[in-house]
Amino acid sequence: MFRFPIDVESFPLGKGPMVMLVLFLISTLFIFGRSEEHGEDLEFWIFANTHYEEYQARVPIFEAQNPGVNVQLINFGGTMHDKLLAAMLSNFGAPDLVEVEITSIGRFLKGAIDEVGFLDLRPRLESEGWMDKLVVSRFTPWSYRGRIFGIPHDLHPVVLLYRDDLFKAAGVEMTEVETWDDFIAAGKKATRDLDGDGKIDQYAIVLDRRTESDYFSLLLQQGGGFFDEDGTVIIDSELAIETLAFFTALFNEHKIATPVYGTWHGDPSNFAAMQDGKILSILAPDWYVGILKSQVPQMSGKWKAVGIPAWHPNGRRTTTRGGTMVGITKQCKNPDRAWELLKFTYFDRPGLVNRYETTRIIPPLKAAWDAPIFKEPDVYLGGQPLGELFIQLAPDLPPRYQNPYWSEGADLLNDAIFAAVTEKQTPREALTDLAEKVRALMAKDSSRWGERNH
Amino acid sequence: MQRKRATNLFWNQQQKIAPYLFIAPFYLLFVVFMGYPLISSLVMSLYEMRGFQSRIFVGFGNFTDLFRDPIFWKSLRNTAYFAAGTLILQLPIALLLAILLNSKFVKGKNFLRLAFFAPVLVAGVFVAIIFNLVYDQRAGLVNQEFVLFGKEIGWLNEENYVMPAVILTGVWQWAGFNMIYFLAGLQGIRQELYEAAAVDGANWWQAFVHVTLPSLRPVIAFVVVVSMIGSLQLFDLPFILTNGGEPADAGSTIVMYLYKNGFQFMRLGYAATIGWVLFFIIAVISIVQLKLLGIFRDE
Lengths: 454, 299
Fold this sequence. Notes:
The structure holds 2 protein chains of 2 kinds.
Chain A: H1 15-33, E1 40-46, H2 49-65, E2 69-75, H3 80-90, E3 97-101, H4 122-127, E4 143-144, E5 147-148, E6 151-152, E7 158-163, H5 164-169, H6 180-190, E8 205-207, H7 213-222, H8 238-252, E9 257-259, H9 268-275, E10 281-285, H10 286-295, E11 303-307, E12 324-328, H11 335-346, H12 349-359, H13 386-393, H14 406-421, H15 427-449
Parallel strand pairs in A: 1-2, 1-3, 8-9
Antiparallel strand pairs in A: 3-12, 4-5, 6-12, 7-10, 7-11
Helix pairs in contact in A: 2-12, 7-8, 14-15
Chain B: H1 2-44, E1 47-50, E2 54-57, H2 61-67, H3 70-102, H4 109-117, H5 124-134, H6 141-146, H7 159-187, H8 191-199, H9 204-232, H10 236-241, H11 254-264, H12 268-292
Antiparallel strand pairs in B: 1-2
């Protein structure tokens, strides 16, 4: 007969704790003693639901093409960047591949260039001839000091979405608007008090004065930026000051712009204002059109799109806003395999066509642009082939140089824009103060770190 | 026989050390998840971290930088503003609600208790999303009422209104929760004290001042101290409600600034410094409050 090896009755506090202890030991052995599944795992972190859904549908094809490879897609949503930061700080637990959002990448570039947690993908891109096949200006947000840490997921060209019916009712034909001066003249006609109560009922354009989004898009269109290619602060350049003066004049002098309703362009109250006909136009990147379609489908057929007005005749008619990259982390055990998955998700033509179909995002791979879907009429825009317009504008996208100080700079830029628009400071004062603060921060770091800073 | 004696001796020893083994998990977890991070962050506050591997010793450099940082002072002012709003608005409302619900004249007490307490069950993130709609400039519930008087306030778009909006949201969420503490305190006051006061000719107000408030002193001290600590640690509500403290850092709080420095700007040493300064602020305020409320006094 089986005899329990220890005297259960004399176990401290009786049988209960004894049973708990045994269960604890068994479950621990089960969890840690579990054999690893055969094959190779690739972990891929994502923060955007639409991207996750796209890859979820396509990864089984990659797994079928690469027997023995298991791809684990993990969608952490908005908290992903913080988790990635923690994993890179602890040098443990980072995925093989990861997508990073454009406003977040700066923090991952802090410190010595060799300490950046992503592999430099330039050698692979160059040796396989991918550089010429992609829009080169879109590598700038993901590059620093000559190294390319990520592949662009998108281009995000910006167009001007406008209410053709309401502009026409005001006697304005928007297809004839070529420059921002033309737009101001058109906007003054279209910005109106319809019921005679002394309050403006419809504004020519809605702009975000709380954050850098619209101002910075206009600055990029001008060919400016916060930092230049060498990392020098240029936010107090005459170009930047002139652009901010123009931006504030749209609100205060010309009075044709309304601040965004709610906290950003995707706020429900902003959509409500659009439906009420309070907003006649908006600077819209490709992804924003996707959001409009899903959030306000009832506005289908009411919008049309043109390139955004140029600063000068025959000037650039687009800019860029937002973006995502995919990078291979230095913790990746098999970078070659990760590179294959990266190419499958980012350079595969059928996948990119599918991406446009579901999200309206134009891919950076030029070879995909001749797919018929980009020429199809878009019902949401009254039959206008929106993809064709985006692709027509894409080669003219301005560069957007990345810098480790972008996060601090953008935070302060938000304040400077608000101060200028609310007339607490002139545009020159606001941007000069801002540039001095960022330069002081960089100088302090340089004095403390010296060469190790780079 | 000898084997059994040996077994008993073993278990006798086990009984002596068993209590320590049973409490060991707490202390182990405390050391791993509290003690080590606390010491580590204190050390970190004396360093400047850069990138994922480099650090340089700066002594109290982060502290001197912090005291010269205008955004830190603005965040501190905003946090103090919220704490003052909690003290002046939220806690008196909570006490008032408790007194009303303790009164025999109010009907439907169970329902009202649940109704006032319910907001605390909603996660802060959802509260912020809901109130984003409530404060909407055009169609929000609050402005629908104010528009009647011809005023349309940009609650989340104008610097002066951002913190009042956050405070009012805090009142909605937490007043009912604090009401429960006050209610428990009120129900613990002996009825004889009120009867004695009535015999002495005290009116309602005099009974409130001389019986209710002194009897509630320990509860008030607890609620005030806990609410102050919560207020000084304010983060998720304004972070989501104001989209990261905008406009012009009008909604920025100390913990939000800590988060931004640590996770968005990758200035971990500086973020640790903010954390320790916040710790000292909370410690000093809590001790002063407990002293003022007479908690250290021998009765």
